[in-house]
Design brief:
The structure holds two protein chains of two kinds.
Chain A (H helix, E strand, L loop, with lengths): L5 E7 L2 E8 L1 E6 L2 E6 L5 E5 L2 E6 L5 E14 L2 E11 L5 H17 L8 H23 L6
Parallel strand pairs in A: 1-8
Antiparallel strand pairs in A: 1-2, 3-4, 3-6, 5-7, 6-7, 7-8
Helix pairs in contact in A: 1-2
Chain B lengths: L3 H56 L18 E7 L9 H18 L3 E7 L1 H9 L8 H4 L8 H17 L4 E9 L5 E9 L11 H5 L6 E3 L2 H77 L1
Helix pairs in contact in B: 1-7, 2-3, 5-7
The chains are: A alpha+beta, B alpha/beta.
């Protein structure tokens, strides 16, 4: 049986990240993860921080660390714009670790230091954690490291 | 006529200058290419953003969606002007054009009794108005020299400063003055309103889209909330476009200026070489006639 596919387009301020055909797509919506298959009804939603997964036919599953974006589905095209979207090989894990430590420190001091923007620190914490998580996912599945 | 040694010295120094200006042209050309690439890379994102925003606003036109960033104030008492120029000089009229336009715009606003605050990016621009004791935004100094890589955190911060002040009522309108990049040799100074946000109607690019009936979208969360999330992001892309364009224009301007300087140095060397040859020939002729004269005196 031929698999039904749809077009996936993902752009960040740094350029195109993906412009592919896809079989399925899983995204972290602001209200929870959601999945998209071919011929999905027109949809518009905001994307939070998390792991985005998509797969094209017999290809391996792509895992991307995505943050703060938008998804529009119409006419079998899924258009995503996001602040950042990185595949595991594009993630600087050391930097993510550092960011995580920094965010942790900020959150710990937040009670005493009124200058700290808790929202921002929390978002930074989640972004860093998300990047690390994506790296971990891909270590388990080394075939997606090529 | 200048003497031979002076001419030689001048040719040498002009040649040195030419080498430097040529090198600067090359550097500017490379930087321009990088800046252009960044504009290109950002285009899909901004393009898709415009599309989504257009779809969203047509979809919710029937409903009543307000966003505080879209609402014009009845009376504009406090105005911010964000001006963007460069940190380095030697880029032709790039900086002076911006300085002039910012000044003009500020003066016009002051005449209609608005309290104008300048938010200046680029050291040249900042220094000019700082020296003249204009009212500058308190964050101006740290933005005087910005990171050319335009990291997203910088854009976000700059956008937040403006939107927060707007929402708090500290400012009623924010205008931008910057150089729009058209091509390496063509730049245009633009003056546009940033906040409250205007012109969210679909642009001419989406003309083919307009004919289509809007889809019956599923919104998650509701369109109003989506709008609230999207608008600040849109504001950030406006800031991004402004800075990216300005940087590309700066490098383009510098490339041109240095190209002209290199050409002028070449012309100057040509003129000076001609003078030098004339001077040398005159010296030789003089020497010869002296020898001939001397020989004739002896034989005669």
């Amino acid at each position: 049986m031929a698999t039904k596919i749809f077009k996936l387009m993902l752009a960040t301020p740094a350029g195109w990240v993906a412009s592919d055909d896809a079989e399925y797509l899983v995204l972290p919506g602001v209200d929870g993860y959601l999945g998209i298959l071919a011929n999905h009804a027109p949809l518009m939603t905001a994307i939070g921080i998390g792991t985005m997964m998509y797969r094209y036919e017999n290809c391996y599953e792509h895992n991307l660390a995505i943050s703060d974006g938008f998804l529009e589905v119409s006419e079998n095209v899924a258009t995503i714009i996001a602040d950042s979207a990185e595949a595991a090989e594009g993630i600087d894990i050391d930097r993510a670790q550092l960011a995580l430590e920094r965010a942790k420190a900020h959150l710990a001091e937040a009670g005493t230091d009124p200058d700290i923007d808790v929202e921002r620190a929390r978002a930074a914490y989640r972004r860093a954690l998300n990047r690390i998580k994506v790296c971990e996912i891909c270590d388990i599945k080394p075939k997606s490291m090529d | 006529m200048a003497n031979l040694r002076d001419l030689k010295r001048r040719i040498k120094s002009v040649d040195g200058i030419r080498q430097i200006t040529r090198a600067m042209e090359m550097v500017a050309a490379t930087k321009l290419r990088r800046a252009q690439q960044r504009i290109e890379a950002g285009r899909p994102y901004t393009g898709k953003m415009d599309e989504i925003l257009a779809h969203l606003s047509t979809a919710i036109q029937a409903g009543i969606v307000h966003h505080p960033l879209l609402e014009p104030r009845e009376e504009v008492r406090n105005l911010w002007i964000i001006g963007v120029a460069s940190t380095k000089g030697l880029c032709g009229s790039f900086n002076s054009n911006i300085i002039r336009t910012v000044g003009q715009h500020a003066r016009e606003a002051m005449e209609s009794n608005q309290n104008v605050t300048l938010f200046l990016v680029g050291k040249k621009l900042f220094d000019f108005y700082n020296r003249r004791n204009w009212q500058l935004h308190k964050n101006s100094r740290e933005y005087a020299a910005i990171d050319e890589n335009l990291p997203i955190s910088l854009l976000q911060e700059m956008t937040n400063i403006c939107t927060d002040a707007f929402l708090d009522g500290d400012v009623d309108q924010v205008d931008l003055v910057y150089t729009e990049f058209k091509s390496a040799i063509s730049h245009k100074i633009v003056k546009r309103q940033f906040l409250p946000i205007v012109g969210l109607e679909p642009t001419t690019d989406e003309e083919e889209d307009r004919g289509k009936t809007p889809h019956d979208y599923i919104f998650e969360p509701d369109p109003g909330k989506l709008f609230t999330i999207l608008i600040p992001k849109y504001a950030r892309t406006v800031i991004f476009r402004m800075l990216a364009d300005s940087l590309a224009s700066e490098h383009g301007g510098r490339m041109n200026a240095m190209h002209n300087a290199t050409d002028n140095a070449g012309d100057m060397i040509k003129t000076l070489t001609l003078q030098r040859n004339k001077a040398r020939q005159a010296a030789i002729t003089k020497e010869l006639s002296e020898i001939v004269g001397g020989a004739e005196a002896i034989s005669g």
